[in-house]
Amino acid sequence: MLNFMCTTCGVQYNKSNYPPMYCTICSEERQYINPNGQTWTTLQLMKEKNFQNIIRFEEENLFSIQTSPKFGIGQTAYLVKNKGFNLLWDCVSYIDEKTIEEIKRLGGLDAIALSHPHYYSSKIEWAEEFDVPVYIHEDDQEWVTRQSDKIIFWSGESLELDNGVNIRRLGGHYKGGAVLEWQTGNEQKGVLLTGDIIQVVADPKWVSFMYSYPNLIPLPAKKVKEISEVVETLKFDRIYNAFHGIVKENGKLVVHNSANRYIEALEGTLFDT
């Protein structure tokens, strides 16, 4: 029996003798099944090919992890080091001995926390390797495709993982969609790691919000306003998204202005066309 992995989104499934008929993550409107058809792989097959994880220093106590060549959605995971507490924020599908050794060299992991189902990847492989819990908001538990007692389904609007390290539920892209507030990062000015619950766009002076990115389905104005109001209460100045987009400074103002622009566009007051 094998843990099959969807090649389109990179999410791993419970052990089975045969691949599932389709990926539950990809077969709904926020994602898509490849037009060429549903395909599967396994971690072992990936190890036999030319995949590797590139771990980069981003700033003091923050490292990014990306798989090359691109696999699945191609997201970036982050290792946050917070005074003896190491957190993996979001996840990538690929993991090998070289990756494990490098993470251990950086102090290992104490926990994994995930923004939303598109980045669940091979979360249990990572959790079992480092013997750590995986934090997922209970509102998204229906999307978990590989069950494990390593998973902790948290509830409510926030969860403190360590001093100054908090998961905050914003909803939007997914009902349990969450961001990570790292208050001591960025020289105590704070960092917000957003996955794509809040998306840094091509012009990094702006961010955006979507129900579906590949299918271009926007969020309602009411929800964007709610997200903006919650973000206003958080401590941060810099933003990192899941695709290495960075708002280097004034992140809170950027979210505020972007939410207002988004709402004005939806309501037809931003432009006339």
| Shape-level CATH architecture | 4-Layer Sandwich
The secondary-structure element order is: EEEHEEEEHEHEEEEEEEEEEHEEH
Number of beta strands: 20
Q: Residue share in helices?
A: 10-25%
CATH topology, by name, is: Metallo-beta-lactamase, Chain A
Whole-number tally of structural domains: 1
Unreliable runs, pLDDT <50, ≥5 residues?
Answer: none
Cα-atom Rg, whole angstroms?
Answer: 18 Å
- Our measurement of the CA-to-CA distance between the termini, rounded to an integer number of angstroms, reads 56 Å
Structural class: alpha+beta
Q: Helix segment count?
A: 5
Order of strands, main sheet, comes to 4-5-6-7-8-9-10
Net shape:
globular
The top-level CATH class is Alpha Beta
Q: How much strand?
A: 25-35%
Task: Name the CATH homologous superfamily.
Answer: Ribonuclease Z/Hydroxyacylglutathione hydrolase-like
Overall residue-averaged pLDDT value: 97
Tell me about the biggest sheet? 7 strands, mixed
Give a quick precis of the structure.
The protein has one domain (2-45, 52-267): Ribonuclease Z/Hydroxyacylglutathione hydrolase-like (Metallo-beta-lactamase, Chain A, 4-Layer Sandwich), CATH 3.60.15.10.
